[in-house]
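Homework-ish question, so no full write-ups if that breaks the rules, but can someone show me the predicted structure for this set?
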Amino acid sequence: MTLADGFRDTELARGVLAGIRQASTRQVRLMEFCGGHTVAIMRHGIRQLLPPTIEMLSGPGCPVCVTDNSDLDKALALARLPGVILATFGDMLKVPGSRSSLQEARAEGADVRIVYSTLDALDIAGQNPACRVVFLGVGFETTAPTVAASVLQAAKGGVPNYYVLSMHKVCPPAIRAILDSGEVKVSGLICPGHVSAVAGSRAWDFIALDYGIPCVVSGFEPLDILQAVRMLVDQLEKGESRVEIAYRRGVTPDGNRRALEVMAQVFEPCPARWRGLGAVPGSGLRLRDAYRRFDAEAAFDFDPGPTVEPEGCICGEVLRAVRTPRDCGLFRTVCTPASPVGPCMVSSEGACAACYLYGAADE
Amino acid sequence: MSERILLAHGSGGRLAHDLIEKVLVKPLSNPLLDRLDDAAVLPGGGRLAFTTDSYVVQPMFFPGGDIGRLAVCGTVNDLSMVGATPLYLSLAFIIEEGLPLADLERVLVSVGDAAREAQVQIVTGDTKVVNQGSADGLFVNTSGLGRLAEGTEISGSGARPGDRVILSGTIGDHGIAVLSQREGIGFSTPLVSDCAPLNGLVAEMLQTGARVHAMRDPTRGGLATTLNEIAAQSKAGIRIEEEAIPVRREVQGACEMLGIDPLYVANEGKLVAMVHPEDAGAVLERMRRHRHGRDAAIIGEVRAEHPGRVVMKTALGASRIVDMLVGDPLPRIC
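A: Not a homework solution, just the prediction itself:
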């Protein structure tokens, strides 16, 4: 096997590409909402291979990138409290808040631990009864159910020292906010694969119905994405708008019912701030009253300080697809993955990092 | 540079590179050190190569190896990468109070086995024990001395336009095998680390009389970081082809699941060599007959264009930059 096998089968992919070139006559703009798609598109050089009729835009679907500085500052303030262990997914470590990052807080003595699962955070709570363990709940529909499950388990097992700082977000309201703003004209949407595995492809029906924009749920391999583009082009050429799935090995129309139930049991919708989009109604998830005692915001007395946005950084506009990473004066000069200014350069799924790491060779 | 040492400074990528160049080497600068090859080549009658490396790995025992085997192979390989025949190793332990003696004994048996396999002798050693919490179980340092044949000139700065880039086998085996065992990730895979001494393979390659200009073992930071180092040091461009890079199905699958790129995943028994185009065929053939080079492949070539940069032709036919690793490759949230 080489790097090019399986869902990367070169011959098949070239065939799909040829089909796209033949089918595409209208000028269209397709947005991939999900950061994982952005990375895959850049990594495999898909943009370069599409015909000039197809323009690709990157959306705000990177949970790390859309975490607002005010939320990051809360996490940093919590991490610095004595007797607190902050458990987080590794992606969040390097993201700069208003004044520093969790990585820097850790080097200065804060107890920040990387976990790969929420249940690891529960274990840490069990092993450190004298400390209070705060799990940094960042992520979309993919992550929120696992955090909900950890809360249920903590409630059941009587874990008194486990808390969640919920910055969870759900995707559909954010897409609606982008479309409603009218800032960017989108002809078709590549819908997120993992989010749809939980939420179901029906979560996007409103886009096809209310906005007349065709949607295709895609996986993350080159063939998945090319197939999704082909399906979008076919709909657009015929003037149709439906939700289709190009990722049937992972996604069904109804999604993962059990995961959705657990999520709904523990969390309720609330307004949330998205970097770039601002406050989006109904796009956040907060703990329901029955589980309020696990809510770090309610349980701790802490001061996140005033929010400061990095000067010159256009991450907000990049997340709205109004501008691209290369439009940023800091890109590649001041802002690099080693010394990132904005979150889109930090996250492995951020548009700026993808552009930096996987940019086309001739650019 | 940040004001404090971050964990990311140890990950073998861009930050580690900056730390070495800007902080560690500058105050100690001398011509032998400044070459920044895997081992220093010492002048004088009968040229010697000298290297040192410290080993920290979690978990200490992993499928296909352990910290002891790693400590021997890593240093043997660093000597091999400048074309030296490894001869003598030192072995030093920093042991955390409370380490089970049985674990230490198991590591030592493994060190002995690996040394026999690599035909090197452990000739000196040291042991320190520190308080619980001051080390993570066991840290190992090995230094190694090797001898160079007359006329051997292999260096990370030696790649020349036209050279073929030969990779000795599949990438990412070690990193994924270790990751699969790590607390919290734990997925089951038949994969084992490729941890192996490469001096036998290198000896075979050099016996062909081939003009091997540059060689490195792509450990932490993976193939992508190693190729970037060679491109920068040699002031040459490197172009590789995605389709030519061998990777095991299990590695590809795990990487897809975790959202990481096999180009950045560590290897402990692979090498990449820049070989004169007329000699590349013969070297490749000889490598494929050796058990550590069975899957060897020509994956690209050195170019005069885009000096210092690595560019990859993707399987779909596009071209993209391949940069150094920045920080640790971390599994994705989403």
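Now go work out the reasoning yourself. Hint: The first strand of chain A starts at residue 28 and ends at 34.
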